[in-house]
Design goal:
The protein is mostly helical. It has two helices and no strands.
Length: 66
């Protein structure tokens, strides 16, 4: 692999949620394309481990109302 990841990892998402606690965060582009290293289940596990709530992790085709 060459260069840094082009998508956010779990630690990045956790940092954003702590920096902007009132933001509506929707995690997308997981389990679908080859450059997305983070899976939905890995993200959910990481969020649960640190107690971060309120981040939407939609399934393919799921609509999120904002």
């Amino acid at each position: 692999m060459q260069g840094d990841p082009i998508t956010m990892g779990a630690s990045d998402i956790i940092k954003v949620s702590k920096a902007a606690p009132k933001a509506k965060i929707i995690a997308v582009h997981m389990d679908t394309v080859n450059h997305c290293l983070l899976t939905r289940s890995e993200l959910k596990k990481a969020l649960d481990e640190v107690g971060v709530k309120g981040i939407a992790i939609p399934q393919d085709g799921e609509l999120i109302e904002v």
